[in-house]
Amino acid sequence: MSQSVARALSLLDRVAGGTSTLGELAAAEGVHKSTVLRLLRVLEDEGFVHHDGEHRYRLGPHLFRLAHQALDSFEVRVVAAPRLKALRDETGQTVHLAVLDGTTAIYVDKLEPREMPVRMASRIGKTAALHSTAVGKVLLTGLDAAERDELIATLPYVKYTENTPAGPDELRREIARTAERGWSEDHAENETFINCVGAPIRGADGRILAAVSVSVPDVLLPYEDVLALAPALMNAVADISRDCGYR
């Protein structure tokens, strides 16, 4: 990869992360402002970035078009979409689709009921901790034992709430429970007011391709009623898994 291309990609990452002025970007890259300005002008001409009246750079519209196309081409997301909509309508709650991305889960789809009084902070493209979310626990069960143990041992065990698993041993117990019953739960472990149930989508070879969750603010349903949504969730992921070739 040429130095200019690598630096342009690095600039996009920095802009996405909140570094926004020419001076900040030049300092972060360790190069002269003129070098950064030249690359930013090329990126701006192509619609990858734009700058506002205060000369702060933001991600441009072309990146959002590319992101939308990438999501549409993501096979599991496309296959799952109709059934996820049906699950949202059946439960009246927010449905997430997530895949494993290194040491985190990443949401590739989110479907909210039209009349949802409480909006959640999750969004498409946002990452989620593996140790404290229903989707994360499901995705961990899909790894082979050695890979899972290595990952569990190195995760950052951020204590989001008093219910968040405190470390590897507690998480391993949660993973074993998830594998045994086929679905996971998040009992206010990632956010104090959200409970979730999660279940896997499997491919033709039986591997877990993605995880689906139903997430519910506790002002709408108590924890026990959220657990009662697990059968509807399991039916949905079974249908999607069949469409992905799983038998």
From TrEMBL:
The UniProt entry, under Gene3D superfamilies, shows: 3.30.450.40, Winged helix-like DNA-binding domain superfamily/Winged helix DNA-binding domain
Listed InterPro entries = GAF-like_dom_sf, HTH_MetabolicPath_Reg, Tscrpt_reg_IclR_C, Tscrpt_reg_IclR_N, WH-like_DNA-bd_sf, WH_DNA-bd_sf
Stretches of the chain forming a coiled coil according to its record: none
Which UniProt keywords are present, listed alphabetically? Answer: DNA-binding, Transcription, Transcription regulation
The source's domain of life comes to Bacteria
Residues of the HTH iclR-type domain: 2-61
Cite the IclR-ED domain residue spans from the record.
Answer: 62-246
Family annotation (Pfam families): HTH_IclR, IclR_C
- As given in the record, the signal peptide range reads none
- The protein's name is IclR family transcriptional regulator
UniProt source species: Cryptosporangium japonicum
